[in-house]
Task: inverse folding
C-alpha cells in the first residue's frame, strides 16, 4: 500500500525518520523495505473513482480491517490517516467489542483517543491534496509519529 506513489513517499519517509522503517522509500515488493513494530492497513481496499471512497465501500471492506486487528495481537496504537480512516477505525474497533468513547472522538490532526486498549491518533492524510498545499507538512507528520512513539514508550 502507498508503494511507488507520492503519498507513499511521504508515509515511508516519515516511518523511516521515526525508526519504524529501514529505508525512506517503498518502490516495489522486492525493494528491501522492512517495517519494525509497524503495519500499514487500510479501511478501503480498492482505489475508488476520483479517489473518494464511499461509506458503502468502507462498510464492505471493514471486515478485512477487523480481521487484521484480530490477528495483530500486539497492536497498541493506531495512526489514522484522514477522517475517513479515523471513522473506519472507530467502527472496526467497535466490531471488536471496544466501545466508542462518549462523546464520540472527533478527528483532527494530532487528535488522540483511547478506545479499549488502543491509542488512536489522527493525522491529515498524506495525499498530494494535503502535502502540496501545506495542510500537512513533514514536521506535522513527524510530530504525530512522535506522539505514537511516546504512547508506546509508556508513561514518563
Result:
Amino acid at each position: 500500500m502507498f508503494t511507488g506513489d507520492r503519498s507513499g513517499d511521504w508515509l515511508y519517509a516519515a516511518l523511516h525518520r521515526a525508526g519504524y522503517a529501514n529505508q525512506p522509500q517503498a518502490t516495489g515488493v522486492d525493494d528491501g523495505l522492512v517495517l519494525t513494530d509497524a503495519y500499514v492497513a487500510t479501511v478501503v481496499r480498492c482505489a475508488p473513482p476520483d479517489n473518494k471512497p464511499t461509506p458503502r465501500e468502507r462498510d464492505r471492506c471493514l471486515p478485512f480491517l477487523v480481521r487484521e486487528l484480530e490477528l495483530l495481537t500486539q497492536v497498541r496504537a493506531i495512526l489514522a490517516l484522514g477522517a475517513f480512516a479515523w471513522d473506519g477505525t472507530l467502527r472496526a474497533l467497535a466490531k471488536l467489542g471496544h466501545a466508542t468513547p462518549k462523546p464520540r472522538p472527533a478527528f483532527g490532526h494530532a487528535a488522540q483517543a483511547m478506545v479499549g486498549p488502543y491509542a488512536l491518533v489522527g493525522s491529515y492524510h498524506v495525499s498530494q491534496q494535503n502535502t502540496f498545499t501545506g495542510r500537512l507538512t513533514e514536521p506535522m507528520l513527524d510530530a504525530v509519529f512522535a506522539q505514537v512513539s511516546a504512547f508506546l514508550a509508556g508513561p514518563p
